[in-house]
Design goal:
It holds the Pfam family Glycos_transf_1. One of its GO terms (molecular function) is glycosyltransferase activity. Keywords: Glycosyltransferase, Transferase. The chain is of the alpha/beta class and 356 residues long. The chain has two domains: 172 residues, Rossmann fold, CATH 3.40.50.2000; 170 residues, Rossmann fold, CATH 3.40.50. It is built from 13 helices and 13 strands. A seven-stranded parallel beta sheet has the order 3-2-1-4-5-6-7, sandwiched between helices. Strands 10-9-8-11-12-13 form a six-stranded parallel beta sheet, with helices on both faces. Helix 9 links the parallel strand 11 and strand 12. Helix 2 crosses helix 3, helix 5 packs across helix 8 and helix 6 crosses helix 10. The longest helix is centred in the C-terminal third of the chain and has 18 residues. It is elongated.
Length: 356
Amino acid sequence: MALEALKNKSIGIIIPDFDHGGEEKRALFFANKYVSYFKKVYLFAPEGAQTPLLDSRVQQVRTPIRGYRSVLGVLRYVQQQQIDFIQGHKRTTFPYLLMLEKFSRAKVNFNFDNIYLDKEWLYRFAPTRLYYLSDHMKDHYQRWFKDRENITINMGGEFYTPIPNSEAEALKRELKLENCFVLISLGRLSDQKNQEVTLKALSRIADESIVCLMVGEGPKEAQLKQLAGELNLPHRVQFLGHRSDVAKLLSIADVLVQSSIFEGFPNVFIEAASLALPIITTRVGSYSTLVGDNGIAVAVNDVEAFAEAILEMKANYPRYAEHACTLSQSAYFKEFHKSKMLENYLLQYSKDAQNA
């Protein structure tokens, strides 16, 4: 890559949260990689779970982003440091990006990682350049942004390697999963992820060898645990909270399940597909980019269809697993590695630097 033009440039990433979410992890990834290409890298975000993982060369400007009290402070800082590029994550940053585009020298962009169902009034504050993590997302949003520069850069994620069989068997014993057909749900326990559908679907299935690992934490944790109790599922559902061993958990699962009401391009699809794991999902966002013959997609909130999909998956598992294996080894799938996503972002910034 011709990236020499970036050596004397600086970049700032702005994000309203910095904990365990997928977008926060992407911001962390970008910040830690950008230090090898840019003269200086800044991160505007509050203290969070990802802060200790930042490369020491990243300058974190710890400031609250939600509520917009910090707009003028961030603007002054960017002006004083003469930051060349600003990369925004999550729609809450729109007012910051608008001010920075109008009143600083920075070239500003925003990264759409989700297809949102509300707060369309925020779109009036969007900057000129918008990046989308799939063509499906770009097609969805262009009706609002016909006068913007709309660019697709495919989502990139982690490619995992299966753990050794002995380690997988030990983990299964630890979690009491021997002889089980294991569903795994990964994500924040929230309204968006809609894990109630997964629990209700499981409760309609008489086969008690079908169990589910719920990995994640969030505002609906207590409610979901209560629901699992009401549905008589405590022996079939394990709430594991936040885990750092996601690759190991995916390695012992049979199917990834996701019953979200809206999504953009879930990073977990890439992680699961890298391990040749079939996927059951709702038809939201960019699901069809990675879910075809390797999985089953159903309508949002259709509990019966979700239950039927689980039973169909178990009954014909070898066929779905074979298609999942084919996808994981394809040249098409290799385009979704996070290193490819990084390369494409850097090329965009390099073009801007050369044209400045």
